[in-house]
Amino acid sequence: MPYNPYDSLNTIEYIGPRPQKPKKNFFGGWVILVISVAMALFFGRPLLASLKSEQVIGTQAAADSIIEELSENASASHKLAVAALSLTKLENTESPVNNSAELLLMAYQSALGINVKDLLHEDMTNAFSQYPQLWYERGPNKEIDASRVQNLQRLFHRSGDDFRAADPLVGDVIFWTLPDGNAHAAIIVPGPGLHSKEKWIVHHWQGAVVWENKLNDFIMPLGRYRFGQ
Fold it and tell me: How far apart are CA 225 and CA 188, in angstroms?
């Protein structure tokens, strides 16, 4: 009988517990999925709204039409909306608006003859401690206080009611804190054409005064006011 060199290799018997397949944590997987979907909806909502709003942008011709319609009503809120829409018609080189604070100052002066800068300085002089202490100032500074949206929001809050919980109306001024921590403000106006029943905003965005349907883009507003109306 021929010799087989593999005859000496015997099967090794395994002694111990029977190997078990790892159990799938079905519940844990669903929890992760639900959290992922929730985060995607939360953070993706502004992006989706932004993409939607960019499909329809208010034109100068549409602004003229809305301005003519609003001008038939002499209410302070409509005058403020007219002033805001008028600022959207200026070319960037002509516009005196460089941020959302200047937008409010210009609109109030043009529409209602209200010098918000003077009112702010007067109130800050009388109640400086009631204003945001974010810039290490020791007292009011008339030259720069009105350029800070946080100060304007506090003035509006101290001078009138917060209508954040009520339905938005044309002429309302709304304040937010953006994701980057910067304060932002806008004036609510009607939408153009077929969107005239919608509430849009005029605000300073990416270097220009724009008219867009982005009222719901920014979550958790700081307040919404009808100051001076």
Answer: 10
Residues in contact with 2: Cβ distance below 8 Å, sequence separation at least 6, in sequence order: none
Provide CB contacts within 8 A for 117, sequence distance 6+. Answer: 105, 142, 145, 146
State pTM to two decimals. Answer: 0.75
From residue 94, alpha-carbon distances to 84, 98, 109, 131 in Å are 15, 11, 17, 33
Q: How many Å apart are CA 64 and CA 192, to the nearest integer?
A: 10
pLDDT digits (tens, 9 = 90+) for 109-148: 999 999 999 999 999 999 999 999 999 999 999 999 999 9
Q: Which residue do the tokens 């929001």 mark? A: 153
Q: Say how many C-beta atoms besides its own lie within 10 A of residue 192's C-beta.
A: 21
Radius of gyration over alpha carbons of the chain, in Å? Answer: 30
Cβ–Cβ < 8 Å for 120, 155? yes
52: closest CA among 191, 180, 170? 191
Q: How far apart are CA 220 and CA 168, in angstroms?
A: 14
Could you tell me which residues are beta bridge partners of residue 16? none
Model confidence at 54: pLDDT above 50: no
The angle formed by the CA atoms of residues 184, 213 and 191, to the nearest 5 degrees, is 120
Sign of CA dihedral 61, 63, 67, 69: positive
By the 8 A CB rule, do 87 and 95 touch? yes
Distances (CA, A) of 131 to 141, 155, 182: 12, 8, 16
Q: Can you tell me the distance from the alpha carbon of 218 to that of 215, in angstroms, rounded to the nearest whole number?
A: 7
Q: Are 184 and 149 in contact (CB under 8 A)?
A: yes
